[in-house]
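TASK: fixed-backbone design
INPUT:
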């Protein structure tokens, strides 16, 4: 009996231990299922919210927060300190786990909660100098008294929520991953800026382009990778006069000149992008400007954006912010509206570093040995011992790659490495830009606000009720010689350093152009008359050309005109090249399915509509054509990057006998016609193999895999596959899990009216009705009218509850 009692007790204790212990990716089941503290506590209905009154430490006065039918908070404070305190508190209440995981990612601290599988991404972010850059940004932010108040109040608000949060109310992801939230710090706000810089200006083709140069030589690379595209429709209208005297352009280094007379970081992702536009009152039905913006980013649940209104005696502004960042990033007030798209300026360069010896205490620069600095990164790993990684810093920045077993050595067997010069490492104060825009009244205020913006460089679009419109590609842009940074540079030559900065007032800009609108779609900022080099590679012209064509033709523009434009899925690529491709096809050589597919794509209207079979055929055909043309770049022994879609179009339309159409692996000598025909047959065969005979299963919305995943890819917390129109090269650039993360249209005038939506909802809680309540509206291409209250007492039947915060 004693033995049975012992065994029973042992297994009971073992079960209790097992239920409270985490195994791999599985949460402690007992904790997760606990009815008092587990996931059951995260359920939240549409009508779960009622009137609330909370007393919090640190507030100076009463704050009133009114919630509308989408659970969007409208914050009314009597002073700015309380406004940003409340913003931090409310954002944490809805998005705490998102705030935590994003800053952990940027800081290289994911392994602390996810274990060794996150070690590589943590090491990469440490070596990229994300914390180094965030530390410098905090210095810049705290130098400005107004911003110091903002950051500290926001931080106090977040921490007030965390300190009052009981374990049972932890967001479900903390329970699943079995860890607790920690205090927010000012540097966490800066981490979000570094994360955006990595997303929008952290990719590079320089390693692959350097390999291209070695394999094919300078003459070929100059031909296949030109600095200006075959098709080009720049942001600043062609032939705009530059009313400034440019600075002298730096001279190329001797090494660069020699390299160009015939001699792996995160890759850039083509075919994704954002759109913004502002239409002058001369072209609108109201006589006042209309501004629209739809930044295209990774689509996740919860959304990258958080929607809110913020009001105090100094400001009344509505729009979206990044959870963890103070102020409104994209939005409007009574007087102005603004939005952003990515410039894609070259603000990240790689330098090959030669060390004196394996100790790497010195590196060769400017004809002498210079001291390195070393920073030991301690990466804590859940369930394992910490990993210590020593990152070497030069005057360029951190040496991201210095592993001798992976990197090449020079002929003297001296270790080499690759150092990173990145604008995201520099001291900055981007939040001041948004602080000033939130309070902006006119064009002069807009221009002043932009002087604070460093990175990632953005196309800031603007409109105001005084009927001004403008657009300025803005950021701290290095002064470079032409093509500087197109390839890895010699880090020992000072001539390869950045030689200063393009003056802010010489950044390309235009105000009230004669054509009556401004717009951007991530294309080149200016034509060849602009005196400075910004980059050699921008998004292709397709979206920009289509946008500008439509805006040019528009009259009596309304909010709905621009809503429909944001959903436009007409393909300029198909418009330009499909007739030429069809001319090469001999229908007599096709089998039954191929002949049917030819009929479908011939009749296709060139729209990437969800129900279009022609879109699926063209897309598959074009991609297979591209792969066959550039087969020489598909090598397993070395990383190369193919020429752009634009250069491929030029080849197709103007160089039918180019050597690049010859497939290296075949004995025959192919020409353009051969590749067009072969790619058509192969792509149709592949569609048939995967989707059966032509019919409903070939519709574009089903063929392309569109879905929105949870931020941590937790199963069941995303949308799953859904049918949708659009693709990367059309205005509605919805492609895979990337697309319009926030659609906004603002009608300026005596009474401003805003409309907007993002895919998802305000809540970060998967158990809440407000986790995805706006998804269907977004998916169907509709917009919600944004409730812009003028006072906390304004009556509206859209207000569903009120939260009052007061000081203890």
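OUTPUT:
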């Amino acid at each position: 009996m004693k033995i049975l009692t012992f065994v029973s007790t042992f297994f009971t204790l073992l079960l209790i231990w097992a239920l409270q212990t985490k195994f791999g990716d599985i949460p402690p089941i007992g904790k997760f299922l606990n009815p008092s503290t587990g996931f059951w506590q995260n359920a939240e209905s549409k009508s779960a919210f009622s009137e609330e009154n909370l007393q919090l430490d640190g507030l100076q006065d009463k704050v009133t927060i009114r919630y509308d039918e989408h659970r969007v908070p409208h914050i009314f404070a009597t002073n700015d300190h309380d406004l940003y305190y409340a913003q931090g508190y409310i954002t944490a209440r809805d998005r705490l786990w998102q705030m935590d995981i994003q800053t952990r990612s940027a800081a290289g601290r994911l392994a602390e909660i996810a274990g060794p599988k996150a070690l590589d991404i943590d090491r990469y972010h440490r070596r990229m100098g994300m914390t180094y850059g965030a530390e410098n940004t905090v210095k810049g932010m705290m130098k400005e008294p107004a911003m110091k108040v903002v950051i500290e109040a926001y931080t106090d608000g977040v921490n007030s929520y965390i300190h009052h949060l009981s374990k049972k109310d932890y967001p479900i992801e903390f329970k699943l991953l079995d860890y607790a939230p920690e205090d927010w710090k000012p540097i966490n706000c800066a981490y979000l800026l570094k994360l955006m810089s990595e997303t929008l200006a952290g990719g590079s083709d320089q390693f692959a382009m350097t390999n291209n140069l070695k394999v094919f030589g300078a003459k070929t690379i100059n031909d296949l990778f030109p600095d200006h595209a075959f098709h080009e429709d720049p942001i600043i209208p062609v032939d705009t006069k530059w009313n400034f005297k440019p600075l002298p352009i730096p001279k190329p280094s001797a090494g660069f000149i020699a390299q160009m007379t015939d001699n792996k970081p995160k890759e850039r992702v083509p075919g994704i992008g954002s759109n913004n536009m502002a239409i002058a009152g001369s072209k609108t039905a109201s006589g006042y400007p209309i501004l629209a913006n739809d930044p295209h980013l990774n689509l996740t649940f919860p959304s990258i954006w958080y929607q809110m209104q913020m009001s105090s005696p100094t400001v009344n502004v509505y729009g979206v912010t990044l959870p963890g960042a103070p102020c409104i990033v994209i939005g409007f007030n009574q007087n102005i509206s603004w939005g952003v798209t990515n410039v894609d300026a070259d603000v990240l360069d790689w330098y090959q570093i030669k060390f004196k010896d394996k100790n790497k205490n010195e590196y060769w620069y400017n004809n002498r040995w210079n001291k390195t600095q070393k920073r030991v990164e301690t990466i804590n790993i859940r369930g394992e011992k910490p990993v210590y990684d020593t990152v070497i810093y030069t005057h360029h920045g951190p040496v991201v790659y210095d592993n001798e077993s992976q990197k090449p050595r020079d002929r003297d067997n001296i270790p080499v490495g690759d150092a990173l010069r990145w604008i995201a490492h520099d001291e900055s104060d981007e939040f001041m830009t948004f602080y000033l825009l939130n309070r902006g009244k006119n064009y002069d205020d807009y221009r002043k606000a932009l002087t604070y913006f460093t990175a990632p460089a953005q196309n800031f679009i603007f409109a105001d009720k005084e009927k001004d419109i403008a657009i300025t590609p803005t950021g701290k842009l290095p002064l470079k010689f032409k093509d500087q940074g197109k390839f890895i540079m010699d880090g020992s030559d000072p001539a390869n350093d950045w030689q200063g900065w393009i003056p802010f007032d010489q950044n390309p800009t235009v105000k009230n152009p004669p054509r009556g609108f401004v717009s951007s779609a991530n294309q080149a900022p200016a034509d060849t008359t602009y005196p400075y080099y910004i980059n050699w590679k921008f998004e292709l012209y397709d979206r920009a050309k289509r946008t500008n064509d439509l805006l040019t033709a528009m009259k009596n523009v309304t909010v709905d005109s621009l809503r429909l434009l944001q959903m436009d899925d007409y393909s300029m690529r198909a418009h330009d090249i499909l007739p030429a491709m069809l001319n090469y096809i001999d229908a007599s050589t096709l089998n039954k399915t191929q002949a049917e597919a030819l009929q479908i794509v011939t009749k296709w209207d060139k729209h990437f509509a969800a129900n279009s079979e022609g879109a699926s055929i063209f897309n598959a055909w074009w991609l297979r054509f591209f792969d066959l043309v550039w087969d020489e770049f598909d090598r397993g022994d070395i990383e190369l990057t193919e020429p752009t879609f634009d250069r491929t179009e030029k080849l197709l339309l103007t160089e039918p006998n180019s050597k690049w159409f010859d497939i290296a692996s075949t004995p025959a000598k192919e020409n353009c016609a051969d590749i067009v025909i072969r790619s058509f047959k192969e792509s149709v065969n592949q569609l048939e193999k995967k989707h059966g005979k032509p019919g409903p299963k070939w519709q574009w919305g089903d063929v392309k895999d569109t879905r929105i995943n949870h931020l941590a890819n937790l199963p069941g917390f995303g949308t799953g596959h859904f049918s949708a129109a659009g693709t990367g090269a059309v205005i509605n650039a919805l492609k895979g899990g990337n697309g319009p993360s926030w659609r906004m249209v603002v009608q300026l005038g005596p009474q401003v009216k805003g409309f907007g939506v993002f895919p998802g909802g305000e809540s970060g809680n998967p158990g809440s009705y407000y986790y995805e309540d706006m998804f269907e509206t977004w998916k169907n291409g509709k917009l919600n009218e944004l409730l812009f209250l003028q006072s906390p007492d304004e009556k509206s039947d859209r207000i569903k509850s009120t939260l009052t915060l007061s000081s203890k």
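COMMENT: The chain has a mean pLDDT of 91.
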